Amino acid sequence: MRFATFNVNSIRARQDIVLNWLKKETPDVLAVQETKVQDKDFPLSGFDGSGYNCVYKGQKSYNGVAVFSKQRPQQVSYGFREEPKDEARLIKAKIGKVWVVNTYVPQGRDVESEHFRYKLDWLGRLKKFFEENFDKNDPVVWLGDFNTARDERDVYDPEGLRGHVCFNEQLSKALEGVIGWGFFDLFRHFYEQGECYSFWDYRMRGALKANRGWRLDYIMVTKPLLDAAKDCYIDRTPRLLKKPSDHTPIVAEFDL
Predict the structure, then answer these.
(1) 5, 1, 6: which is closest to 246 by C-alpha?
(2) Residues 73/53, Cβ–Cβ less than 8 Å
(3) Helices and strands, counts by H and E, the chain
(4) Can you tell me the distance from the alpha carbon of 98 to that of 67, in angstroms, rounded to the nearest whole number?
(5) Of 33, 131, 140, 182, which is most buried with the most CB atoms under 10 A?
(6) Which of the residues are catalytic?
């Protein structure tokens, strides 16, 4: 089986890119983030005949998550149990024998803002979510845009960017707390070294060509899936297309 994650930065603007990528790469599951569309306007008909089922939860202009899968998702739920539910940031579903959790972690805006405090709190709530819903021996894949660079390998300028809202000590501690519940960073399991990024900022001219990027997108797995994993890689091709997302897909392969 092949699982992938892709922050599309508007599913309507990137519909053709997503559809063509699905046809070419044929993953079993694709988790997408930042769909930026209300549920009533989700372009579901555009994927008719693709061979994929789709579940989604969104809101106007911001956030939004969706899961495309060849098998029909079961036991689907959105967001957290407690308020605020943040339904447009989290989907849980069982696909085959695997639990899939697709998240779009808050960006945080600025480290001095209440939005950053909310980001840290959100990660704490996410850890609680995993504790309440799963056992670490369950086959769980947690993937999405985490809006966090884990360490110096994951940013193009570690010293210059240290303290950024997506790269700072408080944030790293919060994310590692979630990972410590029982997850493994699958990309780093296969590629411990190297500057391999999944995001290049539109606002920085020449960022992609100069490879001034960030690794903000992840596929995390529990031990049963780690044992079955065969590879995990970043596909830069969609980022090179005309009018692309600022992110690009990450793909994981398993022998299940």
Answers:
(1) 6
(2) yes
(3) 6, 12
(4) 13
(5) 33
(6) 104, 145
Domain count for the chain:
1
Structure-token pair, residue 112? 């001095």
Residue 199: CA count within 13 A, CB half-sphere: 21
Structure confidence at residue 195 as a pLDDT band (50, 70, 90): confident
The CATH number of whichever domain residue 131 belongs to comes to 3.60.10.10
Which domain does 53 fall in, by range? Answer: 2-254
Which H or E run includes 143?
strand 140-145
Using CA atoms, how far apart are residues 6 and 219, in angstroms rounded to an integer?
11
Neighbours of 132 (CB within 10 A): 9
State the pairing for strand pair 250-254/229-234. Answer: antiparallel
Give the separation between CA 107 and CA 61, rounded to whole angstroms: 15
Helix (H/G/I), strand (E/B), else coil: 16? helix
Report residue 193's pLDDT band, with 50, 70 and 90 as the boundaries.
confident
The pair of structure tokens assigned to 181 is 């519940």
